[in-house]
Amino acid sequence: MLLSYSLPPRPPLGALDIRFSADMRYCRDDCVIETQSVEKFYIKYNIENDEHWELITLDQRYELNGRGKIEVMNQGDDFILRSMKLE
Fold it and tell me: Is the whole-model pTM more than 0.70?
């Protein structure tokens, strides 16, 4: 089943690429988002079932729930996408 979520190898340097670590396009709980050749990008999200996620960048945290769009500035580091378990 995981094979159906895997991505092809990265494109050559200089080409735009955004993916989860391990060349995946699926994330379950805590994930690393790797970027290549992008200064800023937009994340559109539609989160259902009262789930909450958090996107952690080098200097900012975004709480993601419901539906929305955020602009993210890439500072050369990976991003963390984490499921927030609410009590």
Answer: yes
